[in-house]
Structure formats: structure tokens, C-alpha cells
Design brief:
heterodimer, A: 206 residues, alpha/beta, two-stranded antiparallel ribbon, 9 strands, 34% helix, B: 142 residues, 4 helices
Chain lengths: 206, 142
């Protein structure tokens, strides 16, 4: 009678090496950087070629111009430097005041606020519907300066919305609100950043 | 002295492997432009990677500088392109998407790029109705 032969076990000593190689392959071909960025929406292209210039009351516009070396001028004539964080905070601050309807220093009127019924809220609300922040850059403006300004503007909007949301919804920040509530806040403070076609100053001077 | 048992080593490595497969993403393209993206504070995370198309803007990398110079270039997929080609690129990217209205264009531009070229890209994006834009950046101070 033949004795039962024991089946030899599969040699698994190289599995570790194989999985190591897989691991190294994935380490090399993948990247860990999570993609973050400033989200913006572009306006749709003009329907027809006609220039549809909309007249906007001067008091409703907050002008921010960036020149080719990254220096900023805002309405009222104040000059700021985009590489200076303190200046950018100042810009953000002024923007916030403008969105909330306060006048510039030296002017007697801020942007118009309209009293409106906002869906989801019982009281009439002062809405910053008419204000526009106009952003003008030069073709030579460094991207860093442009980005810093955009970041400051978005920060202004986020801060204003956060404050409003804390006031209306029992101290909850904007990000913690439900979709409808966020919509209500957005109606009160809509984001209105208009980007003018950049001017090529280097060509104008020739 | 008893030998150290290595029978659980493959399982261990496999666990690490799975971890890396979860948290990392495949590298999209080999970069041909040198990038240092700006720093911001109000950044949002890009959701739905499959809806995102990338446009890289910056000077050629050190290795390619001899051939292409130091002028700012636009990279679409694996090659340098013209601002006008962005329109085709957007249409092409859109084709593979399930929900075409969700398309997001992420502009990864170098901080020293001049705005002129970015405005050109934006203008073309407007014309091709790719209106959701994301200026890629890194968080400040963290």
C-alpha cells in the first residue's frame, strides 16, 4: 500500500518581493498632490457682436486695476502693492465694506442696496444686488498679482457671507448651512466680479 | 534561536500597496513646463477628477529650454500648443465625459506668467462654453 503523499505547499516566499515591486510601481507612477484652486465662473460669450454696454451708476462700482508690475490702484485713488500681504488684507477689508454697502472714505454714498424678499427668509433683506467689483488687468500683469487680488476678493465675499450667515442662522458659518440657506445668503450677497478686457499699455504708448 | 516568521510580510506589503492605490492618483501627463503655482487662502478642492481638464502654462522645463527657449508656453496633454488649439482640446475632453455641463478647466499657471496669455485662454474658453474655471494653487502657510 502506497503511503499517502503529502502535497507540497506552494512556495510563497517571493510574494513579498512581488508585492514590493507593485508598491514601488505605484509609488512612482502616482502623485499624492490633491488638487486645489480658486474656483471662478466665466461669463458666457456675448450673443451677438454688438457691444452691449450697460450703464452702471458710478457709486455701485468698485474699481480694482492691476498694472504690469503688480501694483494695484483702487477707486478713490489708493495704491496698493500685490506682493504685500498687509496691503492685500486692506484690499479685502475695503471690498468687504463696499459689498456691505458702506461708502469709501471720502465719499458720501456707498453702493445701492435693495430691499428684497429672499426665499427662505421671513424678513425683507438688504441685498447688495447692484454692486459690481470691476477688475482690470494689463496684458503684462504677473499672474501672481492677479491671483492675489482674486484671492482677496473671494475672501471678502466669503467673510461677508459668513458674517451674515452667523447673524441670520444662529451662529452657523456659511459652510455649515443647508443648500437652500446658502442660496438665500447668496441672494443677499451675490458675487459680482466683472473682469474687463485687459489693456495693453505697452502698445498704447508707442 | 527561532527564526523570525516572515509569512505575514506579503500581507503587510499588500496593505501598504492598497493604501497607496487609494490615496494617490495617476499622474496625468509629464510636465513640459516649469510650474510654481501661486498661494491662496480661499481654495476649494477639485471634486470629480474625471470632469477636470488641465491646461498648463509656464516656461519650458530646464531640459527643454535649449530647444524651446524661455518664453511662456501652453501645454495641452503632452505637447505645447497655441491658445487657439484650446478650443479643440476642450471639445475633445468634453466628448469622454458623462455630464458635459460639469466640465471644469483647471489652469495650472506659473506665478511669473503674464496675464495676456491667460486672458487669451480665458477668451477661448468662453467661446467654447467651458465656463467653470479653476486657478490651481497651493494653500498658504500650511
Amino acid at each position: 500500500m502506497a503511503s499517502k503523499k503529502k502535497m507540497p505547499g506552494l512556495n510563497t516566499s517571493s510574494t513579498a518581493d512581488i508585492s514590493f515591486m507593485l508598491l514601488i510601481f505605484f509609488l512612482v507612477t502616482t502623485s499624492m498632490d490633491s488638487d486645489k484652486g480658486l474656483t471662478r465662473r466665466l461669463p458666457p460669450p456675448p450673443e451677438n457682436q454688438e457691444n452691449t454696454a450697460v450703464q452702471i451708476n458710478e457709486r455701485n462700482i468698485f474699481k480694482v486695476s492691476i498694472n504690469s508690475v503688480g501694483k494695484i490702484m483702487i477707486s478713490g485713488g489708493q495704491k496698493l502693492d500685490s506682493s504685500n500681504p498687509a496691503d492685500m488684507e486692506l484690499l479685502c477689508d475695503m471690498c468687504k465694506k463696499f459689498i456691505m454697502g458702506m461708502p469709501h472714505p471720502g465719499e458720501d454714498q456707498g453702493p445701492e442696496m435693495t430691499l428684497q424678499r429672499v426665499p427662505g427668509l421671513s424678513d425683507l433683506q438688504q441685498c447688495a444686488e447692484k454692486h459690481v467689483i470691476s477688475l482690470q488687468s494689463d496684458r503684462g500683469t504677473p499672474y501672481a498679482a492677479y491671483f492675489a487680488v482674486q484671492d482677496a476678493l473671494v475672501k471678502a465675499y466669503n467673510d461677508v457671507r459668513d458674517e451674515k450667515s452667523k447673524k441670520l442662522f444662529a451662529g452657523k458659518p456659511f459652510s455649515a448651512l443647508s443648500e437652500d440657506q446658502q442660496g438665500a445668503i447668496r441672494t443677499i450677497y451675490p458675487q459680482k466680479i466683472s473682469e474687463a478686457e485687459p489693456i495693453d499699455y505697452s502698445k498704447l504708448s508707442q | 534561536m527561532p527564526e523570525l516568521s516572515t509569512s505575514s510580510l506579503p500581507d503587510l506589503i499588500f496593505t501598504i500597496l492598497f493604501f497607496f492605490m487609494m490615496v494617490t492618483t495617476m499622474r496625468e501627463v509629464t510636465l513640459k513646463v516649469k510650474l510654481s503655482t501661486p498661494q491662496g487662502t480661499q481654495l476649494e478642492k477639485l471634486e470629480h477628477k474625471s470632469d477636470v481638464s488641465y491646461i498648463y502654462v509656464g516656461p519650458p522645463t530646464d531640459a527643454l529650454r535649449g530647444q524651446f527657449g524661455t518664453g511662456t508656453r501652453i501645454q495641452l496633454n503632452d505637447r505645447y500648443a497655441d491658445p487657439r488649439e484650446v478650443m479643440d482640446f476642450v471639445a475633445q475632453e468634453r466628448q469622454g465625459m458623462q455630464d458635459q455641463t460639469r466640465q471644469v478647466i483647471s489652469i495650472k499657471a506659473d506665478v511669473n506668467t503674464q496675464m495676456g496669455i491667460i486672458t487669451d485662454i480665458k477668451e477661448v474658453l468662453r467661446k467654447s462654453y467651458a465656463l467653470k474655471l479653476n486657478y490651481s494653487a497651493t494653500s498658504k502657510g500650511k
